[in-house]
Amino acid sequence: MLRINKPFFGDFLIFFLAFKFSCLPCLFFSLPIIALSHDNVNLNFDSSKIIAVFNVDRTNEDEFWAHITLENQSSIPLTHWQLGFTFQRIITVLDGAKIVQQIGDYYLLDSDQIPSIAPGGSATFKVQGKYTLRNEDDLPTDYFLILRDANDKVNGPVPIMGKNVLLPYKPVFLTPGINDYELNIQHNETPIEGNPPDLVLPVESSLIVPLPVEITLAKGNFILKPDTAILVQSKYENVIKIAEQLNQSLNAASGYHLMVQISNEDIQPENSILFTTQGTSPDLGNEGYLLKVTPKRVTVQAITGAGFFYGMQSLKQLFPPEIWRENAHKHSIASDVKSNIRWEIPCLSIKDYPRFAYRGVLLDSARHFFTTDQVKRLLDLMAMHKLNTFHWHLSDDEGWRIQIIQYPQLTEIGAWRGYDLAIPPALGTSNINRYGGFYTQDDIRNIVRYAQDRYITIIPEIDIPAHSRALIRSLPDKLKDANDHTIYSSVRGFHDNVLSPCMETTYEVINHIIDEIVELFPGPYIHIGVDERPKNAWKDSPACIALMKKEGLNNTDELQHHFVNKIQGMLASKNKSVAAWEEAMKGGKLEKKPMPLIYSWKSAEEGLKAAEQGYDVILTPASNLYLELAYSADPSEPGDYWSGYVDTFTVYAYKPIPPNLSAEAKMRVKGIEGALWSEYISSPERLDYLAFPKMSALAEVAWTSASRRNWRNFSMRMGHLHLPRLDQYGVNYRLSPPGIQIISQLLNANNEFSGLVMRYTLDGSLPMITSEIYKVPVKITGNVVEMRSFSSLNRGSGVVKQVTNEEQKKLLTK
């Protein structure tokens, strides 16, 4: 599989991401073959002739052993070379070269015992390091080379070819444990939050994702016509704006030219879609709605703008999936309006309101930068799923993403990374080119307004005191403690990424930053991180030793708590509450006025413990809700797996509230959040792939009452109804491949999402849209079965390949 910096689109992307059962994945990392210069010295040779080969020899859970070979297929000798790459693992032993730089996941190796490599020659050095290498994303990428000539002038950096070789991956019939076919059956038989799996609503009476509180079907249909009226029986501007949003979608999808009108509250004309506050009750709450469809009219009833908005979202899901093409157009995805669609919806009544008040998604724009339009697209998809909080991670070691007028250095320096810059290269971005970006304050205001129109609150995160290397490197004169000689390493391999809580200039800078952030984000919270501070940080800082003595602090956890309390007070003075990760609870209790918001990520138990202590809590346990984690152990699946694998079922099966939680603590659990950390998300296509369909499952956990949740029903709604909506939207979601089982030469197949079309071949060829559709068990006549799933727009999944002949299985085993 290719390590994807600019992934393939459509079938090609999915095919390479999920080519599930090749025995020896070999990865080529190809950057542009160009001659670049550095310090005005030109590198005059074909860099495509230089190849770095990383070959994994063996691995276990704690260590790996590999070797790197630098092959010189060019016509010039490589002298005084340096090899650069990014690599998520920590190298502990290097034989034959030396590490001259290691900053985060960026490595620069220097020739040590191998000063020159002749044309046609190669050099190999052994590598040993921490943690396993089982996934293609675990391996090095973004290789480049630097040479020095006889006059010690620098040639480069220049990208070179890279080839990564994993250990052989055994196909499914050789893999011990449960296969996908059995796993799909097991999931269908698993009770969710105690609900019997066999009590399944039919798809026809559970049309919406997330599933509403009540849906009652009636006879007949409402048909949208070119002269259908959209009426608003309210003078509130926000309701009119919601009706206009619906009108925009209907006009773009149908080609009809409908109009929004303010209506007399005593009139309910036929052939209309009516937004009204009449007939509602307080039990709907702030986000609830009633939706009624008859052959004569559609009525959306609510008491708040949010309720009307969510009623409108449910109404859109009742129409044919092509209604979502308007978003595809908006985001530059070609989709032609078809005039032969019958724009009708079933007659029914819906009563609906959410389970949790906070239904969130985190996007990390620090590791990889996402444009304003890409952020807006994610907000649209959140709105489609009734998710209402956007947690925006805007700073980290690898980048600072928000303009601060007081400190232009933050975006002049901290927003960019690359070779010889203050911020070094990082995973998934070219090592030789300046990479990055930032949001101007006008960009932020624009995005905040866009979110508000979709009833989404944005909570910005500036990660301190750890995860602050970009901040420190941008303002070293104010933030670097020159007398602190503490040796530490963060979980990502940084040795200088922690702010000092013992210098007044630290608080001066943070105060100025917060002043500007508060003006940009109207929501009640500012998130300050407080996660993953290296254990030894501040231990050998004279300033911190003195401060701890003065304040009577016993350890660095209490020193961190001292820091958090000061920032909390700073925010309170600006009428904001602090939000932070669970580590903010270390070293002492936080003030409860104003009430902080604690995010639990290491385990749900920490969050529930904080709720029992009387703190407001958001649950985002990595084991279930870190959406960027890989779907499975298949080496071709992108993403990390440090907290296990997270597929769509794992998200859906999450039980936020355990039965033994006290009533008061239950009230303190404000909601849940899915995280999209972007170390491995180097493109919008990969963001789609890792986020969906997981985000659809997240929405149902957050919105739908526990008693209504059922995986089998969710699976049917996704396969028959919701994935086609995402298709029309242009979402590059992970299309799950079939699960197959062959017994006595009889092929049985199923899918994670029932309703997906599955096609197969028996001659070893790749299944295409013209191949046979699987409907009932098939008698096998050949030695190889290949199957793929296909979307409503004929996009194909990865290939499942199974050898049926026992003799061939024996050969492959050898």
Walk me through the structure.
It is globular, with a radius of gyration of 28 Å. Helix 6 (372-384) packs parallel to helix 8 (441-452). The chain is built from 21 helices and 41 strands. The protein has 814 residues and is α/β, with parallel strands linked by helices. The strands form 10 sheets. It has an 8-stranded parallel barrel, surrounded by 5 helices.
Notable traits:
single chain; alpha/beta; globular; disordered N terminus; 814 residues; seven-stranded mixed β-sheet
Set down the secondary structure blueprint.
Blueprint: H1 10-17, E1 26-29, E2 37-38, E3 41-42, E4 50-59, E5 63-72, E6 78-79, E7 82-86, E8 91-95, E9 97-103, E10 106-111, E11 116-117, E12 122-130, E13 141-148, E14 154-159, E15 161-165, H2 180-188, E16 214-223, E17 229-233, H3 237-254, E18 259-262, E19 272-276, E20 289-293, E21 297-301, H4 305-318, H5 325-330, E22 344-352, E23 358-364, H6 372-384, E24 389-393, E25 395-396, E26 399-400, H7 409-412, E27 416-417, E28 435-436, H8 441-452, E29 457-464, H9 469-474, H10 476-479, H11 504-520, E30 525-529, H12 542-551, H13 556-572, E31 577-581, E32 597-600, H14 604-612, E33 616-619, H15 622-625, H16 648-652, H17 663-668, E34 669-676, H18 684-691, H19 694-703, H20 711-729, E35 739-743, E36 746-750, E37 757-761, E38 772-773, E39 778-779, E40 784-790, E41 800-803, H21 806-813
Parallel strand pairs: 4-15, 17-18, 17-19, 19-21, 23-24, 23-34, 24-29, 29-30, 30-31, 31-32, 32-33, 33-34
Antiparallel strand pairs: 1-15, 2-3, 4-5, 5-12, 6-11, 7-10, 7-13, 8-12, 9-10, 13-14, 16-22, 20-21, 20-22, 25-26, 27-28, 35-36, 36-39, 37-38, 37-40, 40-41
